[in-house]
Amino acid sequence: MDISAELTAPCSTSELFGWIDDLASYAKWMGLVHRAEPIADRGGLPAWDVELRARLGPFARSKRLTMVRSICNPGSEVVFERSESDGRSHSVWRLGATVTPLDSGSHLTMRLHYGGGLWTGGLVERALADEINASRDRLLSLIAATTR
User: Fold this and answer.
1) How many Å apart are CA 54 and CA 8, to the nearest integer?
2) DSSP at 103
3) In total, how many domains does the chain have?
4) Of 5, 48, 77, 85, which is least packed with CB atoms within 10 Å of its CB?
5) Which range marks the domain in which residue 33 is found?
6) DSSP state of 122
């Protein structure tokens, strides 16, 4: 499953990048990320213990995983990937974000890739798309509150 989303923000690329380069801050604006706590580096890469949660009508699904920041080009690109240490094979989770400057503000493109079967299906994809849209609005509100 691949989902992408974009937004245009009335701030500099460095301000926008400050909201996306640390998974711990995602819980403030992305409803899918219920919790993200920094843990010891994994293979020299910053790492987080993450709990993802999505609601489907009266039901909620959650998933706990360890993510590392595998790419970080300050101000322009960040990629987080699943990195478990239990020796078992796990589905791929990859979240990438690219920030580009605009004449007035900046542009964010986010891409989520999930390679497993637990979170797939029309209803789940619709719920994720709805959450991404709500997250976009929350992030823009936080940006507006900090740039005044």
Assistant:
1) 25
2) T
3) 1
4) 85
5) 2-146
6) H
| Residue environment code for 70-84, b if the CB has 16+ CB neighbours within 10 A, otherwise e | bebeebebbbbbbbe
User: Which pLDDT score is estimated for 124?
Assistant: 64
For residue 135, give Cα distances in angstroms to 6, 89, 132.
Answer: 11, 30, 5
Q: Identify the CATH number of the domain in which residue 7 sits.
A: 3.30.530.20
Amino acid at 7: L
Cβ(5)–Cβ(15) under 8 Å? no
What single-letter DSSP state applies at residue 11?
A: S
Dihedral (CA of 20, 50, 43, 112) sign: negative
Which tokens in the block code for residue 15? 């301000």
DSSP symbols for 53-84: EEEETTEEEEEEEEEEEEEEETTTEEEEEE--
Q: Is residue 107 within 8 Å of residue 99, measured between CB atoms?
A: yes
pLDDT, one tens digit per residue, over 2-54 is 888 899 999 999 999 999 999 999 999 998 899 999 999 998 999 999 998 87
